[in-house]
Write a structure and sequence with these properties.
Largest sheet: 6 strands, antiparallel
Order of helices and strands: EEEEEEHEEEEEEEEEEEEE
Helix content: under 10%
Structural class: mainly beta
Number of helices: 1
Number of strands: 19
Strand content: 35-45%
Radius of gyration: 20 Å
Distance between the termini: 23 Å
């Protein structure tokens, strides 16, 4: 059966020999300057995550399989799921052992589109600035929300953590009750540019690709 989009983690990303990875939130603004020297910022488009993955050395037979899927992902409309491999959990729960089998959910969404409450957490569970969280929303296609915490919170005895501020702003379509992934969320991306590297004897090296989040 032909592969479908987005490629699941296990179909491509988890098999990559990653040497370096970057993941940052892009800017979406332009600016103008008045005759009086005032700089005015203007929003344009939406802020999307983007980054670069540098691949390590690997035997060419393995590399060839990577090249095949990388070439496929350069097709128009192709996409993949990926995550930031620098994190396996949150700041205060680096392996998600404390979270365990708990199932956090969106408990409420603030009108400012910057804050949300989470329920279903262990009592006194801490969510810190810098932690990642994500959830899905919408249908046809399913969209993948991917956020970094700006202001954290600690859950009370009922397992609710309130007023968690995130970046980027929460987009329309997010719903109360949606399951939330803490620490290791995935995002949907497309390949923006790829470098296939070079080979010598049995080893290939120098490969890398740049990616940009897509909401479609």
């Amino acid at each position: 059966m032909a592969l479908s989009w987005p490629l699941p983690l296990e179909s491509f990303f988890e098999g990559l020999p990653i040497q370096k990875i970057s993941c940052r939130l892009g800017r979406a603004e332009t600016s103008s300057e008045t005759g009086g020297g005032e700089v005015i910022s203007h929003g344009m488009g939406t802020r999307l995550w983007r980054g670069r993955i540098v691949l390590d050395k690997e035997i060419h037979t393995y590399w060839a399989a990577i090249e095949a899927k990388l070439a496929l992902l350069e097709q128009p409309g192709a996409s993949l799921l990926l995550r930031d491999t620098r994190f396996n959990g949150t700041r205060f729960d680096p392996q998600l052992a404390i979270l365990g089998t708990s199932n956090p959910q969106i408990a409420s969404l603030a009108a400012n589109n910057r804050e949300l409450d989470l329920s279903g957490l262990p009592a006194n569970y801490k969510i810190a600035a810098g932690d990642l969280l994500g959830f899905t929303y919408g249908a046809n296609p399913t969209r993948y929300a991917y956020h970094r915490v700006v202001v954290g919170a600690e859950a009370g005895v009922t397992g609710i953590a309130s007023d968690i501020e995130v970046i980027p702003f929460i987009r329309p379509g997010a719903q109360v009750g949606r399951p939330v992934t803490l620490g290791v969320p995935v995002l949907k991306a497309r390949i923006a540019n790829a470098e296939y590297g070079q080979s010598r004897a049995r080893l290939s090296e120098g490969g890398s690709f740049e990616w940009t989040q897509t909401l479609r």
